[in-house]
Automatic annotation (TrEMBL):
Lineage: unclassified sequences, metagenomes, ecological metagenomes
CDD domains: FN3
Domain Fibronectin type-III: 20-64
Protein name: Fibronectin type-III domain-containing protein
Organism this protein belongs to: marine sediment metagenome
Amino acid sequence: MEEAEQDTLAPPDTIAEILSPTEIKAFDTPNDAGENITITWEAPEDPYGIIVGYEIFRSEDLGK
């Protein structure tokens, strides 16, 4: 990577903060007998073009 390119990239911890989704909401999906959860969020602006997806985990054990 050329030196000029390196100067425009933010440090990894800053990138994580900038690219975190906001307004995250999770709720029971209506009319499915409790089978599903609907999750919505506002995607951040991605000035670096590095967001390729999010991982969502579900557990029946609170906090695990």
